[in-house]
Amino acid sequence: MDELLKIDEVANQTGLSKRTIRYYEELGILPSPERSGGGTRLYKQKHVKFLKRISAAKEVLGFTLQELQEFLSLTEMLESQKEEYKKVSDPQEQKAKLTEIIKILDGELEIIEQKIRRIHTVQTELVTLRERARALIELKNNE
Amino acid sequence: MDELLKIDEVANQTGLSKRTIRYYEELGILPSPERSGGGTRLYKQKHVKFLKRISAAKEVLGFTLQELQEFLSLTEMLESQKEEYKKVSDPQEQKAKLTEIIKILDGELEIIEQKIRRIHTVQTELVTLRERARALIELKNNE
DNA sequence: TTAATATTTGACGTTGACGTCAATGTCATT
DNA sequence: AATGACATTGACGTCAACGTCAAATATTAA
């Protein structure tokens, strides 16, 4: 199968608002779904998955919507690389493009690692706070 | 010692703009520093450290400034717990308060862990993309 | 087929987190 | 005491990322 979903259902499944979903389509972030005869948007599961992925990336990496678009175009470039593009253009140029993609990915991976390190710092701080609080309670119990 | 810094210096050391620094003070996030006779703000190193900590928490956890305030009030509560507060109010109430603090901290720690897991998901995704790109290059080399 | 309910488009509103500008005052140096 | 570089306050501006509302259709259930 592959049920057709209306926007309200998609909103429920993704946790995004209907406005947001339309907005993402308007920005070109979300591929336009089919329409019914009357013009109602009809989504498939792939749209739901897509929305979940990108909203995760946005939240987690703190991406703006613009950065999200750039991020997505990377994936696209790789897709296009695999298909028709493969036999069309200059192989030298293709390799250059791939190398550039890898560079960008390396950059983003580094940002992620930095982010993880910083999260751990904050995490440690919070754990310390908790320990202090617990110690205080203990102290009160033994008096 | 403990040099007195003017706002421009603080901005340089923290990477925040002067506007942002004043804004944080206005919101009550950053403790007001001393002033010179003429009214110029004079910061100490503790202000710099403080700003670094909170901007890290903001970036990393995606805290809004309001959440940041709540987060900071937690630390304050723990501080007050250790000092005068200790002998003033009802010990029963104090324990209740501490327990609540711990609860909140647990909540935030859980959020952090969730966030870390999600980051890893995105990280994995990016690594996969990179592998694909590398494989494509290899393919082109062997043809 | 007629409600009741949901969807679409367009447009304007909102909010957070600052940026920017102007007028005025301060600091450091000469 | 004058000059040039920075600081302060207040106010308005801005930008992203939606929220909200209205008027016109569409869809679904009875």
Automatic annotation (TrEMBL), chains A, B:
What the entry lists under Pfam families is as follows: MerR_1 (PF13411)
Against InterPro entries, the record matches this protein to: DNA-bd_dom_put_sf (IPR009061), MerR-type_HTH_dom (IPR000551), MerR_fam (IPR047057)
The UniProt entry's coiled-coil ranges are: 95-132
Entry-linked Gene3D superfamilies: 1.10.1660.10
One of the entry's Gene Ontology molecular-function terms is: DNA binding
Provide this UniProt record's keywords sorted from A to Z. Coiled coil, DNA-binding
Residue span, HTH merR-type domain = 4-74
What is this protein called in UniProt? MerR family transcriptional regulator
